[in-house]
Amino acid sequence: MSQTTVPEERAGRLRGTAAGIRRDLSGSQKLMIFVLSMALSGVANTVIEVIPEVSIGPVDVSVSYFVFVPLTLVALLNPFWAALGAPVGEVIFVDLLMGDFSGLAEVEGIIQMFLALFIAGSMIRNPRSKIQIALAAVTVVVIDKALSAIVDLSKVWIGVEDAEYVEGLPESILVLEGIGFAVDILITGVLFGVIPAIWLIPALHGRIEPLLGMRPRVPGEPIQGSAPRTGLFVGVALALGIASFFFAFLEAWDVAIGVFEPDFIDTYGSGFLWVGIGAAAIAFLVGVALVKLSRNTSTED
Amino acid sequence: MSRKTRDVLSVEWVKLELIRTAYATRGGLFAKMDPRMVISWYLILAVVPWLTHDLVTIIALFALTAVSAALARVGPLVLGLFLIGFVTDFGYAFGAAWVFGGDHETALALVEITLKLATVSLASIAAFVSLDPEELSTGLLAWKAPELLAFGVSYGYRMMPILFEEFGTVFTGLRLRSPQGKKGFLGLRALWRWGTWAVQAFYPIFLNTAKSVRTTVESLETRGFTAAQGRDLRIAQLSIGALDVAVVAVTAVAVVGAFELDALFTIA
Amino acid sequence: MSPIIEIDRLSFRYPGAERDSLRNVCLTIEEGDFVAVIGGNGSGKTTLCKTLNGLVPHYWEGEFAGEVRVDGVDTYDSTVATLSSTVGYVYQDFQNQLVRPRVRDEVEFGPTNFGMADYAERATEAMQMLGISHLADRFVWQLSGGQAHLTALASVLAMRPRIIVVDEPVAEVDPAGAHALYERLTELNQIHGITVIVIEHHAEFIAQYAKSVVLMDDGAPVWHLPAPQAAARAAELASHGIPAPQIVAACEGLELAAAPRTVDEAAAVLRTAGARQRPSWTAEAVAGSAGQATREGQPTTEGEERRPVAVASAVSHGYRSVAGDLMPVLTDVDLTIRAGDRVALVGGNGAGKSTLMRLLCGLQVPRGGSVTLDGIDTKKSSATKLAEHAAYLFQRPEQMFLKDSIRADVRLFPAGRKRADADALVDRVLDRVRLSDFADRDGRTLSGGQQRRATLAIGLAMTPSLLLADEPTASLDVASRDSVISMLDELSGAIAAAVVATHDMHLVAEWATRVIVLGGGGVLADVTPSELFASDALLEGAHVVPPQITALGRALGIDPAPLSVAQWREAVALADASETVEVTA
Q1: How many domains, chain A?
Q2: Which of A25, B199, B230, C496 lies 20 to 30 angstroms, CA to CA, from A134?
Q3: How many Å lie between the alpha carbon of A7 and the closest alpha carbon of chain C?
Q4: Predicted confidence (pLDDT) per residue in A156-193, tens digit
């Protein structure tokens, strides 16, 4: 029998370093976080789509999304890739599929949600701290909803001729948006954000990371492979912010056209189209920048 | 009360509807077209409603997209969700405007904005519901979308029925094994319980999905997904045919017609 | 033949791990070999195979020492993508390996990603080699387990690899499918010269198909031997959790030193040796023996009608297909499950096993006819109320682990229904399935066998009259499977009746008292295990392969054929030995 006892020492030549975990994530780990975030947010949104909506009076008392699902991922894993995967998952699983797809506005939705989640995820330093989790959950909803409220308002301006001269319209839209905002923070942010997240994040901490071949995050320590704090990243984040606001801004611009030259709106049709294309182009450039960024970081290793 | 097997409004039904929608098994006009032309078609109809404030034109455009949706054979779940959404939105907005002293002009303004949004939504339903996810992602690739997004599209479509079913199974387990109780005032207690289960279901779902995603990404790695040299090969599979040109041309003519209709009415 | 894989003093440690998962591995594999890698849980089999295509150390990073050369290339200096054109890898959970909607897309995926212009021909060729060309346009979620596995295999074949690694090929495939799969692998090996490496627990497959065997233990190979020599070391294999195939055990039971590879070989050996049926082995004797029919735990005597636990009368049920048609699954089924029954539901995929179980436990209600559970019409009650009468165990254990520990999972039901003795009950149940030591762990972190026992504990804590389990022994190694079977055996006192849907004929042979064969929308047969295995027509209709020992018994004309090795020992003797037995008896 060729049974041999295993020698105490390793016999082979050590390749690379004997280091433990790298500070940076490998390309496939990023892909894994992205795909996981996409899949889970997609499921969460499909479930919400199926839940019947309850309305009290004119206000929709429904859940916009399960904040705790993407929040858990940004809190425990790399916030950048988790934050990117969640809105993409929502668009792909629900919006495209359920016919909720609003075209260019989806880009704006992705940017808003990404920013909201990324900021919230970066806020969480200790995944076991209830206060940090609660703050982060509310932050997601506040950032996302504030941005989308602005866009919603401007859509009315662009969509309705001389919107501000229509009796009762601006007030009613403002009040509805205001109530909607408050209800969203309460239902989406607290009921389906803070409360489940306070339970789920600590419950999964230390359990989900090994399944992905990563080391659990140690409280206080910056997360493994966190977004590079370089000028490039700050630049991209800024560009995203501007692009998101640009969608609102460009629609406000149309109001000006509508007010001053209502008879010539068709003349400005081509110009307006150009604005739309410009917005898409900016969004596209941001997308390209993101991909470039990811390629750069993955080739760095 | 007697239980029976329901064919609609059950978890199984939703799953089937998702599959039917996702894989465009209903056939329909756009399913036969080149994805790039379908997306172009959609872009036309997504932009033009915003170029006019004329109600006649808007109604004409809405009618155009409604016909397209019919030709695309959109399923009842998707169409139902769409209709409910728009009717209630309109109702609430109008109710609120009325409270603030609005009149028939407010109503007209709201009809206008609602119809515009509905046209855009319906166009997207017709276009994206008919597209095979593979074609859609190839189309995106052809337009230089990031590979990650194109992959996400086809992977998402493949996984969604599976993940939804997994959620259903876990939720059933929770429902059967968790403490039961009274319905409470207006069924609020029952509602609360269902909410808790929906949230609790995510604990196992997170861990189970993490486990399967690991295999998936590992397999992607071994099969050259990250090598990403296949973009051109996949794009080469697309071709624009007579049908594509015809559909886009007919749409363009119809859109121009809708705007002309406006002129006609203004003169009259 | 030249070596295609050379591993020299390889050690590997996962980040944060206490010890090396692989330690000083030296191994050479010749091109064209058919290697079975065997060993217990945690012996490093899977990690070793993942070094071959560079997943270790390029994807799974950690401390890597030594050298792995695949086709002359040092894997440390290469990449996963490059190595993947030489080494194809099929995962144990292959369903997650499939990432595209249709079979053809899936098979084309690899070659397309690598920018190979002939991707279409490669895909067509790979599908032809595995005989799945007719599936090309199917959606992957429509495939059966066996078809999905072949698709995963085709998708790596399309890369035209020189080595294929298959992790536990038969884990999720029914027995007939498992043999078909091994036949395909053998073809690839013999006709196309591809080196095949399988990770395998089942000695019968190793003996029948492998050319050489690597035994792994504690992160290093113990030996690498030609298959016949490896098979001869039955005792050593058994100590590593690989019990000898039943046919080898059968020869051993007669003190014959032979290691037959197939049932036919074994039958030939035994005929020559003069094995024959003992006169004491009669149908009556079987009934009284350790095996079948009546068991001590049974509460009532033969003549008396036992209490019906679940009754299906004129049950019809079906599902809506994607196209919207109603697909009938069961038509006009009448069935009574009585107290003391241990029922095995068998039948091909889509025969309605899971449907029938879901109807019996009240999770669903039939479209036609009625199901009565413990005297309650399932249509008149709710699934949550019926959960107190019937427990249904899903096929995938992780779907039943809803909480963060086994104890919490087991406690969920009794505590929720306000049972006063809930904690005592939980302790008792956990003790019964021998999981008390693991009670605080998440179910997902347990081994396959422990996971199954944990789901049994969850079911038992519901104190049901009827326990239903879907494939309770699927994807388990032999030792875990035996422990689950014996666990099921011990539980008969706690529940009135049990129903199990299964492809595992060992479970049928060693546990069931009643086999219900489903097919063609109804019950094809309602028989005892012995009757099932005695009828070729039934075996065919049910798409099952009898256990080796039963097939061997039949080949030697032993009637009734033995269902377990223990029965074999009672039933068969060598020509001369039998007389001495007669005398002593």
Answers
A1: 1
A2: A25
A3: 8
A4: 666 555 655 666 666 777 777 778 788 888 888 888 88
